[in-house]
Amino acid sequence: MMAWMIPHFRIERLDEVDSTNSYARALAEAGAPDGTVVVAERQTAGRGRLGREWHSSGDFGLWFSLLLRPEFEPQFAGMLGIAAGVAVVQSMRSLVGARAVLKWPNDVLIDGRKVCGILSEGRTVGQKLEWAVIGVGINVTAPEGGFPSELEDVATSLAQHCAADIGAPAPDKEALLDSVLSQFGARYAMLSSGNVRAVRDEAEELMRSFLNRRVTIRGQSGTMEVRTLDLSEDGALLVELDGGEVAKITAADVSIGTRACARGELDA
Ligand code: BTN
């Protein structure tokens, strides 16, 4: 089997941009290589899933996008966002001991509140994934004046937890970026060498608190109450329907009680 190296990331830094995902998509279309990273201090039009706005007009967070040109089958594209989620959770745990967990497919929560969101986009031509852009938004500190009222109950920042749990400030953004890139690089190399199972197993472990739970999923065919089971080989969510039947969810909003949503998909 071919040995896959951890990619060398080439970082492009911007003070301000509309969205690092949009910028990275344009770079992808212009032929920029695998491993290009776009980091911005502020976004004027940060995007979340489902066309939502991502609050990132200030420099309180780490806002970046990874441009990838994976060699593996498009079927496993969803694992890229999951691998990024794993990288963020492991970085928060190892840098500051945060009680970070993963919520399918790739939201990162601390004490039930969202500290990081991930937006995966890509282009598939025939059977080939031409490029993928994985956008990561981490609330390192809270925005000046706090989160807007609609996010108050669902969002948090790493700094809030560092202050409460270790009595220290949050790690600086450079240290966090370094760690997330190196953790992601290791999982990307695993995916590229065909070891999808190892990344999936790790993600499942980090999602344990979210599995075997009653959740509400909202998809194209409506809203359903289901019980979460585990992850499929390609990172989809397996759930048990009320009749006992097992269904595979590849793209849906998932909510536990009244908490925030997640959607698993690679938007073109
Ligand atoms: C979500 O949870 O809805 C996904 C949020 C993703 C936000 C990041 S911030 C960097 C990158 N650029 C964007 O416009 N969005 C992603």
Describe the protein's architecture and organization.
β8 (214-219) and β9 form a beta hairpin. The chain has a seven-stranded mixed sheet with strand order 1-2-3-7-6-5-4, with helices on both faces. The protein has a five-stranded antiparallel sheet with strand order 11-10-9-8-12. The protein contains five helices and twelve strands. The two termini are 31 Å apart. The radius of gyration is 18 Å and the shape is globular. Helices cover 26% and strands 31% of the residues. It has 268 residues and is α+β, with helices and mostly antiparallel strands. It has two domains: 10-208, BirA Bifunctional Protein, domain 2; 211-267, SH3 type barrels. Mean pLDDT is 90; it is low at 258-268. Residues 19-21, 43, 46-49, 52, 54, 56, 63-65, 107, 117-119, 135-137 line the site of biotin. Biotin is lined by residues 19-21, 43, 46-49, 52, 54, 56, 63-65, 107, 117-119, 135-137.
Helix content: 25-40%
What CATH first level of the largest domain would be assigned? Alpha Beta
Query: What is the number of E strands?
Result: 12
Mean pLDDT figure: 90
Instruction: Work out the radius of gyration.
Output: 18 Å
CATH architecture of the largest domain: 2-Layer Sandwich
Major sheet strand order: 1-2-3-7-6-5-4
| CATH fold-type name of the largest domain | BirA Bifunctional Protein, domain 2
Largest pleated sheet: 7 strands, mixed
Rough outline: globular
- What structural class is derived from the secondary structure elements? alpha+beta
